[in-house]
Design a protein that fits this description.
This is Lipid A biosynthesis acyltransferase. InterPro entries: LipA_acyltrans. It is found in: Cell inner membrane. Keywords: Acyltransferase, Cell inner membrane, Cell membrane, Membrane, Transferase, Transmembrane, Transmembrane helix. This protein is an alpha/beta fold and 312 residues long. The protein has a single domain, classed as 3-Layer(aba) Sandwich (Glycerol-3-phosphate (1)-acyltransferase). Helices cover 45% and strands 15% of the residues. The chain is built from twelve helices and nine strands. It has a seven-stranded mixed β-sheet, sandwiched between helices. Strands 6-7 form a two-stranded antiparallel ribbon. A hairpin with a 2-residue loop joins strand 8 and strand 9. The radius of gyration is 19 Å and the shape is globular.
């Protein structure tokens, strides 16, 4: 069980725009006022951002500081899901923006299984619930992951379900788990499979990321082919006013040929890069970039963070 202070619980219980404004003001105060900054106030990814995105030193430091705010925001929103009433959670759904909702609705109405393929970005739990509420009403959402749930994950999923949205994690560490995911997709469940995982999480595919040789875990092509489903690449960005679900180009996978795998890998690479560039400070995987890069000097294979987005 996580420990939450009275102040944290109070702020998490506020309506979405109010609690985010409080957090933003607090973050700014910690950066400006002497003696209030806890630790370094930095994420420590400024050098990686500067080299990878080819931005100035000032911009990399600004993005690093914004990454701290993004990390704090994710923590706040998970606490809000634990502290807000069911009616309040449903009210917070009004702050989920889905600009391309029509495209998602067309995919949902096609009759094919649907695989949502997001990145580890933004405050994803509420927007995912928003997608079920707005587009996939009455369907279950299963979020695939390769590690055991943390206690807070289970509690948050329970709260979302109590609010009338059926959503849970499905561990796929073993072959049978993967088969179960295929069966659930074919029976109408909406599957969520994160795209931005290093090669250690599955079948590796060689590609590039931001101009450097990289290897990605590419299970999405097999999942799409075996379910005969449509993949909807997504990313979530979050700000003080709410969350936005951005949709990429849907695709399907008809076979497992070398050319098809190459095409899907290229589509995934482009989606990752375009999404990260939309809001670099909100990508959880910067501290683990070396795990993706083939030319990294000393890659570290650590599966303890980044799977759910909550602990990245």
């Amino acid at each position: 069980m996580i420990e939450v202070t009275r102040k944290q619980a109070f702020v998490a219980g506020l309506p979405l725009p109010a609690r985010r404004r409080v957090l933003r003001a607090s973050w700014r105060a910690r950066r400006i006022l002497p003696g209030t900054l806890q630790g370094s106030g930095r994420m420590g990814i400024d050098t990686v951002l500067e080299r990878t995105l080819r931005v100035s030193r000032a911009d990399s430091l600004r993005l690093d500081a914004e990454a701290v705010f993004s990390d704090n925001l994710v923590e706040l929103e998970w606490l809000a899901l634990l502290n807000r009433s069911h009616d309040d959670i449903r009210d917070d759904l009004r702050h989920v923006r889905i600009p391309d909702q029509g495209l998602i609705e067309r995919v949902a109405a096609s009759g094919r299984p649907v695989i949502l393929a997001p990145l580890h970005m933004g405050c994803f739990a509420l927007p995912f619930a928003g997608l079920i509420h707005a587009v996939f009403r009455g369907r279950r959402m299963l979020i695939l992951r390769a590690r055991e749930d943390h206690a807070i994950d289970t509690q948050v999923m329970q709260r979302i379900n109590e609010a009338g949205v059926e959503m849970r994690f499905l561990n796929v560490r073993h072959k049978q788990d993967f088969i179960d995911a295929i069966r659930f997709a074919r029976s109408g469940s909406v599957i969520v499979s994160f795209l931005d995982l290093p090669a250690s999480y599955g079948v590796a595919a060689d590609t590039t990321l931001f101009g450097r040789p990289a290897r990605l875990a590419m299970g999405i092509d097999g999942l799409a082919r075996l379910t005969e489903g449509t993949v909807l690449p997504l990313c979530v960005t979050s700000d003080v006013q709410g969350d936005t679900v951005h949709v990429g180009q849907p695709f399907e996978v008809a076979d497992n040929s070398v050319e098809t795998k190459r095409r899907v890998t290229e589509d995934v690479r482009r989606h990752i890069e375009a999404s990260v560039l939309r809001a670099p400070q909100q990508w959880y995987m910067w501290p683990r970039l070396d795990e993706f890069l083939s030319d990294a000097p000393d890659p570290v294979h650590d599966r303890s963070a980044g799977e759910s987005g909550a602990a990245a």
